[in-house]
Amino acid sequence: MGVDMKNMETFIQVAELCSFTKAAKKLGYSQSTVSFQIRQLEEDLKVQLLERINHTVALTEAGRKVLDYAHQLDRLTMNMKKELKPQPFITGHIRIAMADSLACWILQDHFEAFRRERPGITLKLMTASTQEMFRLLNQNEADLVYTLDQHFYNSDYIIADEEQIEAHFVAAPDFLPVSSRRVPVRELIQFPFLLTEKGMSYRRLMDEHLAQLSLEVRPVLEFGSADLLCRLVTQGAGISFLPDYVTEPALLEGRLIRLEVPDFAPQLWRQLLYHRDKWVSPAMQAVIGYFSGKSPAPDSRDSHMLS
Fold first, then answer.
1. 13, 3 in Cβ contact below 8 A?
2. Integer Rg of the chain from CA
3. What is the pLDDT of residue 304?
4. What is the pTM of this model?
5. What are 164-200's pLDDT values in tens digits?
6. Do 5-84 and 87-297 have matching folds?
7. Which is higher by pLDDT, 249 or 198?
8. Does the domain formed by 5-84 have CATH 1.10.10.10?
9. CATH no. for 87-297
10. How many other CB atoms sit within 10 Å of the CB of residue 183?
11. pLDDT band at residue 253, thresholds of 50, 70 and 90?
């Protein structure tokens, strides 16, 4: 049984004013329109709501009960409209599963600026392997995934933003006992390596590329923080394979060198994705808009912040 909410609103006015004429004047309707709406409501509910005797209007017993429900519906409608009313700024909580080094980049270089830009949005960043990211996305435990891996495409996901990222083997300038920066991969893997955990994004790409050559690296240290690995490499602790945006500051300061390794060029991509069935809320759209096109870069504190 459907009830027209406009008819219910008219009924409230007639009941409270005890007059069709006064209700019509308040609502800006003709008296015949008010009478029609009340008759239609009575037909819908199959009860008589009002008694009309000598130009007076009184509620029937059923009318009093319906009036109570009408007030409840009116309050619910007002609350709903209040909740859905556009806010002065966007609010929401967005969960992002991402590669560890991207999380460090966001927190160190962009979080303060993002908070100034979107004070009503809170973020939950979850670092995980690429496989785990998509598990979280598929189970709606993450709203977005921010990968740093091989190029990923699947029709189940929408690519909100993507960019190819360079990565290189790096070492301290005086670490290698050779003057040339061009090192064959078979020679390179004889040195101690500091790497992110096995199976994690660019580490996995490196391992897969080496496996094609029947080679393997056994690192002396495995750790999730790319920034810490970079610092250890500058101290001469070993060699690492890291994205350029992590190593660029140390490279510019002369504390690191990039090694040229012939026939070794894994394709690394930064991709921001969400499930095609996911409702893109205003908060989620704001997060996508903010981080899309923001390439991790050494000068990101200056050139990529929003004013």
1. no
2. 32
3. 31
4. 0.61
5. 988 899 999 988 765 567 888 888 899 999 998 777 7
6. no
7. 249
8. yes
9. 3.40.190.290
10. 21
11. very high
By residue count, the chain amounts to: 307
Q: What ranges do the domains of the chain cover?
A: 5-84, 87-297
DSSP string, 40-55: HHHHHHTS--EEEETT
How far is the C-alpha of 111 from the C-alpha of 123, rounded, in Å?
10
pLDDT tens-place string over residues 114-141: 888 889 999 999 988 888 999 999 999 9
Report the C-alpha gap between 248 and 298 in whole angstroms: 6
Q: What strand order describes the sheet that includes 257-259?
A: 240-243, 167-171, 257-259
171 neighbors 239 (Cβ within 8 angstroms): yes
Q: Is 82 left (phi over 0), alpha (psi -120 to 50) or beta?
A: alpha
60-81 burial: b if 16+ Cβ within 10 Å, else e = eeebeebbeebeeeeeeeeeee
* Helix and strand numbers, DSSP H then E, in the chain: 13, 12
Cβ(169)–Cβ(217) under 8 Å? no
Distance CA 98, CA 263 (A): 29
